[in-house]
Amino acid sequence: MRPRASLVMLALLGLGGVFFYWLIHVNPLPVVQNVPPVLPEYFAERASDCGVALLNVAQSESGPFKRVFPIGLKQPHERLRRNVWEHGRYRILGRFTGKTRVMSECASFPEFEVLEFKSWGPVQRCASPGTLDATMLLYTGELSTEHYVPEDFIDGPWPPSFDDESCRRVGSCDANLRRLDAGCASEDVIVDGAKAPSIDGGFCQAPEACVNGERRVNACSGDIWCCQLLPSDGQPEP
Asked: What is the DSSP code string of 139-205?
């Protein structure tokens, strides 16, 4: 090889080395990061069918809703006390797994994994005077309805209970308490056998009728009761 050609070759090799160094150290290639996918938010209501707890889910408040079989450690039915999920409405982060749960000789539902949830609208808590389930005898009238509180969860503190033998029915409401837009007309509220106007246009309420330390208790059925609280040493076991 001629000397001139050798010098040209060495120069080209040098330029190549400089370019390679610049490419790696001065202008490195972008690093692709493993960014988790953004999960859509769903609107959901508690449902049941075939003897199992289900959810109706939709990607908008107005639907259309699809009935699904929920799974995961953070599904509302597994985390909340019954008096809270009985009228549960949720905003859920989750995903369809692509699997189907077949309930023998009944129906089949797509499987949906719940990753996180919060209340959709005001937290609604209800009770059932006369029930054998101590969870449904909890007095929750003084808890915030803007969000869930520790007392709403199975592993949370036990709220005070009311004495269901002391309860007296003072009113009822036929409106669907699970719907924020369930308007309440005057004829919807019945108090001691007589019609009475609604105090709140969003949720039916009876006039203040509780006396002598009684507390207002909203039943899951829509009935409104006045009940005495049990003493702290008379609370049922959680």
From this structure: --TTS-SSS--GGGBTTSPPPPBEEEEEEEEEEEE-S-TT-TT----GGGEEETTEE---S-SSS--
Tens of pLDDT, residues 182-222? 333 333 333 334 343 333 333 455 556 788 889 989 888 88
CA angle 16, 22, 24 (to 5 degrees): 105
Strand partners, 114: 94
37 CB-near residues (< 8 Å, 6+ apart)? none
Q: Which residues contact 47 (CB under 8 A, 6 or more apart)?
A: 53, 54, 55, 56, 67
Query: Two tokens at 141?
Result: 């009238």
Q: pTM here?
A: 0.68
The DSSP-derived string for 48-112 is: EETTEEEEEEESSTT---EEEEEESTT-HHHHB-HHHHTT-EEEEEEEEEEEEEEETTTEEEEEE
Sheet holding 194-195, edge to edge: 194-195, 189-191, 162-173, 223-229, 215-218
